[in-house]
Automatic annotation (TrEMBL):
Protein name (database record): tRNA rRNA methyltransferase
NCBIfam families attached to this UniProt entry: rRNA_methyl_3
UniProt KW keywords: Methyltransferase, Transferase
Superkingdom of origin: Bacteria
Residue stretches in coiled coil: none
MF terms (GO), sorted A to Z: RNA binding; RNA methyltransferase activity
Species assigned in the record: Liquorilactobacillus capillatus DSM 19910
GO cellular component, one term: cytosol
Family: Belongs to the class IV-like SAM-binding methyltransferase superfamily. RNA methyltransferase TrmH family.
GO biological process terms held by the UniProt record: methylation; RNA processing
């Protein structure tokens, strides 16, 4: 039986951390994340941005390892890493109470997203990117049967994962009931809802985005104060979850007077 020390070390690295992949996400992580373990940069690449990443890491006294492309391929699960991978401690989730207290301290009306069973990490990352762009204060996801914060989510979010708090809860229905007691209006999405272009999202609101295939669960629908729909006149009567979320989020953003 052969023994490969390099592969063993790579596996150990993968067990200890999550990974941020790509040049822009790496820079954003170095600016905002305090829990970075190591930075891996492909040897023999001389791009200016990689030199900038290495300099930023060394300034924070973070270990920078120059490694062959093959190791980065393994760490990144063969995704396009652009010559850099940042190993970070597992992503930390916010608490619901902490999120509510933080928003209350800003004296702004809450604008939250609730994701009911989003399964594709690229959808979650894209939704986080849009949420950050319009100032959504937090995202709530379920602990089970949904994608969690991963390296793929981090890369797709292009750094938004460092700015948008994510709360992970056991029961979305109970969480929504709790939010309603706090005076937050709950809006959902459905084929039979009201035209989203007329949605007035002023005040304290939370928007529920459903699963890519099944939509919002029936029990959660019952807790919604209003359902919204995106009118479509073409042959395709559905949109990608992150695209639909972006349209709805920006309507909410616009109607709030931003």
């Amino acid at each position: 039986m052969s023994f490969n020390k390099n592969n063993e070390q790579t596996n150990n690295d993968k067990e200890k951390a999550e990974f941020v992949i790509g040049r822009h996400p790496a820079l954003e992580t170095l600016k905002n994340n305090q829990n970075i373990n190591k930075v891996f940069i492909q040897d023999q690449l001389k791009a200016d941005v990689l030199l900038e990443i290495a300099a930023a890491a060394k300034k924070k006294k973070i270990i920078v390892n120059k490694v062959p492309k093959s190791k980065l391929d393994l760490l990144a699960d063969n995704q396009n890493h652009q010559g850099v991978v940042v190993a970070v401690a597992a992503y930390k989730y916010a608490t619901l109470d902490g999120l509510l207290e933080k928003v209350a301290s800003t004296k702004q009306d809450p604008f939250f997203l609730i994701l009911d069973g989003i399964e594709d990490p690229h959808n979650l990352g894209s939704i986080m990117r849009t949420a950050d762009a319009v100032g959504v204060q937090g995202i709530i996801i379920p602990k089970r049967r949904a994608v969690q914060l991963t390296s793929t989510v981090a890369k797709t979010s292009t750094g938004a994962i460092e700015h948008v708090p994510v709360v992970r809860v056991t029961n979305l229905v109970q969480t929504v009931k709790q939010l309603k007691k706090k005076g937050i209006w709950i809006f959902g999405t459905d084929m039979e809802g009201n035209d989203f272009r007329k949605w007035n999202a002023r005040g304290a609101v939370a928007l529920i985005i459903g699963n890519e295939g099944k939509g919002i669960s029936p029990l959660l629908k019952k807790e919604c104060d209003e359902m919204l729909t995106i009118p479509m006149v073409g042959h395709v009567q559905s949109l990608n979850a992150s695209v639909a979320a972006s349209l709805l989020i920006y309507q909410g953003f616009t109607s709030r007077g931003n």
